[in-house]
Amino acid sequence: MKHARVSELVKHLRHFSTCANYSKADDPKHANTQLVYMDADLEELGMLCAELDLQVSVLHIREARQHVVEIKDTSPSSLAGVASILSAAVCGNIEKELSLKRFFLLPSERVRSYDEPTFGTDADNSFPSSSFDTSEACKCFALRRSTACVFHLMRVLEIGLGVFAGRFGVPSDHTNWHNIIEGIEKAVRGMGSDPSRPADWKDQQEFFSQAASAFMFIKDAWRNYTAHARGKYTEEEAETILINVRGFMQKLATRLHE
Questions:
Q1: Residues 210, 110: Cα–Cα separation, whole Å
Q2: Where are the domains of the chain?
Q3: Concatenated DSSP letters for 186-235?
Q4: CA 157 to CA 26: how far, in whole Å?
Q5: Which of 157, 162, 176, 256 has fewest C-beta within 10 Å?
Q6: In 74-92, which positions are buried (b, 16+ CB within 10 angstroms) versus exposed (e)?
Q7: CA-closest candidate to residue 118, choices 253, 258, 256
Q8: What backbone torsions phi and psi does residue 240 show, to the nearest 5 degrees?
């Protein structure tokens, strides 16, 4: 988001349009000093406009800076008038071009979701292929695109489910969630009969059994609903699901990874 740069641009506009720094030109030396200040302000405005993609304003400011160069030999008494005309023209053009743009204002409590769209280091590192949907889910939540947020969360979970299935050799390509989860549950139940089972197999069995049950709940409560056109979510629902999915992926990351 470039809201900070917009704020900075407005500040410079106000400073520039007052011509306060250019109104006292008592001698040629002072006038040239003020022209330097004026050119510096125009340069800063030009950079800010470039960052905001105000291309017409960038061209206009470039012309204004060229005009500043051309009036270096102008009499000191005319400087204030020239500065006033230039500032009014430049500011007016920027204001018009800004009116054609649309800027989103994020509530302070949602800025972090947009600027740091992550599920935490462990989850991000364990499931790197989910990074796109993790980021999109967080940003959609910040921008109040609630249904889109949940859609991306389900894609994140699908990656987690695929890794989970791979851990137990359960096919997951082109297979619906229900069959995948049932296959995982069957494999988890059979951990005790595996002669090569690890020493902590009971702890693992409990963990994976709970994870499989959670996936089945998610499938029935959210995933199936989101996959159809009738699925719509409020901001409150999206926030609840985001918190739960983030926590669930963090938990999966303690035992699973791509």
A1: 31
A2: 3-98, 109-252
A3: HHHHGGGG-TT--TTHHHHHHHHHHHHHHHHHHIIIIIHHHTSTT----H
A4: 71
A5: 176
A6: bebeebbebbeebbeebbe
A7: 253
A8: -60, -45
The list of the chain residues with pLDDT below 70 reads: 1-32, 71-81, 224-230
Question: Are the beta carbons of 108 and 116 closer than 8 angstroms?
Answer: no
Q: Are 201 and 168 in contact (CB under 8 A)?
A: no
Let me know: does 159 contact 144? Beta carbons within 8 Å: no
Is 103 within 8 Å of 73 (Cβ atoms)? no
Q: CA geometry: angle at 32 spanning 30 and 38, to 5°?
A: 105
Torsion of CA 190, 161, 231, 233, to 10 degrees: 110
Left, alpha or beta for 174 (phi > 0: left; psi -120 to 50: alpha)? left
Model confidence over 157-208: pLDDT tens digits?
Answer: 999 999 999 999 999 987 889 999 999 999 999 998 888 888 899 999 999 9
Q: Are 135 and 117 in contact (CB under 8 A)?
A: yes
CA distance from start to end of the chain? 32
